[in-house]
Amino acid sequence: MFGDSTVKQWFYYIQSKRKTLKQFLLYDDKWSRQLLNLDLQRNMKTTWKRHTFPFITGSYQSWKEERTIAREIDLIRGDNRTVIVLNIGVHFRAYPVYYFIKRLYNTRRAIERLFLRSPETKVIIKTENTSPMEKDFETMSDFHGSVHYLIMEIVFKDLNVSFVNGWDMTNAFDTNNIHPPEKVIGNEVKMLMTYIC
Q: Is 96 left (phi over 0), alpha (psi -120 to 50) or beta?
């Protein structure tokens, strides 16, 4: 899993439901550290890693071992047991849309290269959630999120990828929290599982 804290919510949700997944603590203790869970009985590994710049946060961040999602995908061998989940969005709202489009096209090219070496790998893209409209109206508004959502559909539309539509789900649940409650996360993860299984 690559992306922001909304995909990290999926990671923790899956961890809470699969009791055989055991967290493997890596060297960093900050909230943005790479996460790793192992299930030795089922020979399964789940990981979460944040996307790189821009990453809007008020806390200190270490940028060691930072790579874009495209570079991370290039490092994955892929096979019929590999599932890649990615999310790109809310942290780009405050920047010109050009940077968002450029990141999406670089990611698209990495997915195309992945499918050349491993066409059976599954790639699932999570779209942005709606967010609260309490502050930063100009830079962080849902207007920018809806534009990102439309651009993402255009960029990835003819690739063999699946979408979990966080935008529609958070609208349907009438939650304007960028980090929606567990019932929304549960439904998003169930949609993810329909693509995997």
A: beta
Tens digit of pLDDT for each residue in 145-165?
788 888 989 999 999 999 998
pTM over 0.90: no
For the record, the structure tokens of 43 come out as: 């020979």
Distance CA 1, CA 122 (A): 12
103-119 burial string, b = 16+ CB within 10 Å, else e?
bbeebbebbeebbeeee
Q: Is 46 left (phi over 0), alpha (psi -120 to 50) or beta?
A: beta
Of 5-9, 25-29, 90-94, 179-183, the poorest mean pLDDT is in: 25-29
Instruction: Enumerate the β-bridge partners of residue 46.
Output: 37
As given in the structure block, the two tokens for residue 114 are 């992945």
3-state SS assignment for residue 175: coil
Sheet holding 22-23, edge to edge: 22-23, 35-39, 44-50, 2-3, 83-86, 122-126, 162-164
